[in-house]
Amino acid sequence: MQGRKTRPPRLASALLRLFLPEGLVRDSILGDLWEEHRNLVIGSSRLRGWLWYWRQAIDLGSRSAARRLSSRRSPRETDQRKGFGVLLDHLRQDLRFAARQLLGRPVFTLLVVATLAIAIGPNVAIFSIFKAVVLEPLPYPESDRLVHVWRTDVASRSRYGLTSPNYWDYREQNSSFEELGVYNPYVFNIGDGEPVLVSGVLCSASLLRALGVAPQIGRLYTDAEELDGSGRVVILSHDMWQDRYGGDPEIIGNQISLSGEKHEVVGVMPEDFVFLSVWSRGSSFQLWTPYPIQGYPGTLTRDNSARGGSWLLSVGRLAPGVEWRAAQEEMRGIASNLAELYPETNARTQVWLQPFVIEVFGSAAGRLLLLGCTVGFVLLIACANVASMLLARAAGRQSEVAVRLALGSAKWRMVRQLLTENLLLAMLAGGTGVLMAVWSLDALKGLLPPDLPRVDSVAIDGTILAFALALSLFTALVFGLAPARNAARTNVVDALKEGGGAKSGVKKRNATLRRLAIAQLAIALMMTNGAVFLFRSLQNVLTTPQIFDTEQVLTAHVLLAGGEYEDPATRIVFWEQLLERIDAHPDVERAAVTAQLPLETGTYEFYLLEGETFDPSGQKRGAWRNFISPGYFEAMGIPMLAGRILTEADGGEVSIPDWRPESPTQEWKVVVNRAMAERAWPGENPIGKRLYNIETPRRWIAEVVGLVEGIRQTGPERRSTPEIYWLYDANPFAGAYLVARSRVDPVSLVETIRGELAVLDRDIPLSNIRTMGTVLDSSLRGRYFITVLTGLFTAIAVLLSMAGTYGIMSYNVAQRTHEIGVRGAMGASRRSLLGLVLRQTLRMLLFGVGIGLVLIVNGTFLARGLVYGISPFDPFHIAAAVGFVVTVALLASLRPALKATRIDPITALRTE
Amino acid sequence: MGNKSYPGEFEQMVLLAVLQLKEDAYAPRVAQELEQSAGRSVSRGALYTALDRLNKKGMVRWSIEAATSERGGLPKRRFEVTGSGVEALKDSRAALLNLWRGLEEELARD
């Protein structure tokens, strides 16, 4: 790590390489600077080292460039050499003059710098997030060869994980992949010492090889260790090795207790290794171990009966030179063969490949891009605003410019002077903007949704500064264009004529100003509209009934680990005892356990209705499946619509080991949700109906005994989809969510539950403790993030465009003082004078709103997927946005308009 | 003496620093020496320019040494004062001493 920190700034050393003549001398100078920079960084700080290096690089580079320029010239060219010196001299003069000009009008300078900085700051901040999250290369060698492998349905575009037997076939029959591996994020109970739950990964040996990671110490585990099932081995993350085992170099070969079983530590990952998972994106994983593990239902079986489910996430490394599309073709061929061989399970199964980088960063990139556009628009408005300020000021400097021109100053010199001023302004604003970004970055990071990867590495570094510099230059170009053109057009004679003789110039300038104001209004309208729709959508999501109780329910994850829970029946006994104890507490209304919480997805199962036979080519019916204790619906506050709940009496043989009620003679009782009833038995009473598994060897029969309201399994903004609830006897899980509905503040139950748990087994930790309100909140973090920031940036945009409108109208009134005075003298009423000014605002608004509406219609794709419970073209909300912008613009021009009515004709006529 | 050229003040300092450092005379150390012994902090641009000029005048020469990891694997240039460099220093010292003669008392007064 130290190597990276002590490396000199890349851009600066690249510049040096460019400017110094190539050879040993250059290399030795670079070496000297490297060494001195390194000493400074180690002895003092990175910042000091950075500053020092840049100073030396600029000094050396400019000296070398000057030397090269002068040595290239022949003696005859001395005149030109003088020319170069003169040019430098001019530049210095320009800069000094520009600085004096700006300092001479501190208020104007401050206003311009603040306007630009308030727009540059957010751009820099958002870009720094975008860079860290999306632009940094994946932390794996040749990561462009990594692809994600998904199972899809032939007809729908839904994506699922792979099933184990299919994975083996894909892996063994393909020639496109160098390695193909599978994994599942999982929670492990680390047993030695204080028991804790850590996030880890169950994965095949081939997966780690596919990622191309080499452990810092020890080794990766092998296929053999994975396959014979004896592989009780584990690889630790660098963090876990440091934090829990004190960085002990002798850790390799030690046994640690993982979910109740001894595992041998075979390796430790390097410090900078990051495992990026499509699921549990924000997690930092602490260990990697092969399948199977106690308490986790999945194994890498080749058993054909297991082709039906789908639970393995798969990542592969393409062989060198193989395109992912070609690999997809091959994999699709294999999938088609499997479909012929196993029509019952594979008839509709296809394979879909997706480059890993898109898989991991795709959605984050989309959301950040939306914010990027938003801040980009703010910058455009700021540029338009500053351009107007400069133009208005140019009007005041017209005579000065004309006098200088008349005295023989070159026109291009004048324009260059203006550009220098603009550049200076932009640089000042850029610097301020960077400072703003630095200050706001921590707050911004706190707002980021938890599923955004690599948030920790967000920082302002050399690249970001270069971006800020480029952005400032770009800004100077954009806002300086109109004023510079205007100046270049100055006609000396016209400008020097007394009393507004320069009519044509004024007209042109006023037209430009109006256009700039219209552009600001149009962009402000588009952004306001976006913010209105996002806030409305957030409100819609928040007011969407979630069915379950979000106020009084506490949840926590419990994982049973250790030899005594190997027998599934003991687990059920444990859960029953625990729930009984918790239920006995007076503050607890009802307690239960469940395999899955609402909003957090789960597992999917296909089923047949009574009388149906499986048609491999037809669409399969599927439903979420959940395993619960009898009190679940009461504890979660999910209303019962018909029938009854599941009771202990419905429990049959506790089934082992997989979720697989083996005895077809036994009829299970299940509860279904409303969406399931409507899908499977539209218009009928679902109570008493029967369901079957889809494969021919009949594995289970279930009778519906109850109907409940549907919760949203995949997120608060999604529809409720079919769900089947089984009693936990059907799948006696080792890890489950405890759910307790409280009569008092639910958080106060934590100690009670922890106490009861300790009475039964003090080695079992309680983890992931949340209220259901928190569960709902955290699933909305991404939406909060986008909505709050868009709102903030829109507020800035509206403020800026309001200031812009105000400025332009004030300027306008000031310019028309004479005319207004004449009108007043001729007897025009105050009201008609007010109307005169406001009409002009309305004309601008007409164009601004028109263009804004066009932008709105064409820009909806930006917020696609974020608008909820409302049409993106909802006329009422668009009208509200238009109304808001119109009101703001009219308010902004009210003061200038009122000022117009107070113009005294006598004074006005004297202003000539 | 009319056509004799002396090294400039800064050049003299650089030459002396190089002599002081002996085997260890490469640019970062020269800069350090100038800062410590003469209280003069120099930009690296100025230092390399001076060393280049002295090299062209034949007063210093340099040799390349192997790279180390502290310098990102880049080579090292060690400087050495040549015979004519030493001569120039001596001449300049002698000239200065000549000019100083008899002035010590007067200049030491304040």
Describe this structure as you would to a colleague.
The complex is a heterodimer of chains A (912) and B (110). Chain A is built from 27 helices and 22 strands. Chain A has 912 residues and is α+β, with helices and mostly antiparallel strands. Chain A has 4 domains: 1-72, no CATH class; 156-347, no CATH class; 497-544 and 781-910, no CATH class; 562-762, no CATH class. The model of chain A is unreliable at 73-79 and 656-663 (pLDDT under 50). Chain B is mainly α and 110 residues long. Chain B has a two-stranded antiparallel ribbon. Chain B is elongated and about 55 Å long. The chains are: A alpha+beta (912), B mainly alpha (110). The interface between A and B is medium-sized, with 21 and 19 residues.
Blueprint of the fold:
The complex is a heterodimer of chains A (912) and B (110).
Chain A lengths: L1 H4 L4 H10 L4 H20 L2 H27 L5 H27 L1 H30 L10 E8 L5 E2 L3 H10 L3 E14 L5 E8 L1 H7 L5 E2 L4 H5 L5 E4 L1 H8 L9 E4 L2 E8 L18 E3 L23 E6 L5 H18 L1 H4 L2 E7 H51 L4 H37 L14 H27 L3 H5 L6 H41 L9 E7 L8 H16 L4 E7 L8 E7 L11 E8 L3 H5 L3 E4 L23 E7 H7 L9 E3 L8 E8 L14 E5 L7 E8 L6 H12 L5 E6 H8 L1 H35 L1 H9 L4 H30 L15 H27 L3 H6 L2
Parallel strand pairs in A: 4-9, 6-8, 15-20, 17-19
Antiparallel strand pairs in A: 1-2, 1-10, 1-11, 3-4, 3-10, 5-8, 6-9, 7-8, 12-21, 12-22, 13-21, 14-15, 14-18, 16-19, 17-20, 18-19
Helix pairs in contact in A: 2-4, 3-4, 5-14, 6-13, 6-14, 6-15, 7-11, 13-15, 13-17, 13-23, 14-15, 17-23, 17-25, 17-26, 18-21, 23-26, 25-26
Chain B lengths: L8 H13 L5 H12 L5 H13 L3 E6 L10 E6 L1 H18 L3 H5 L2
Antiparallel strand pairs in B: 1-2
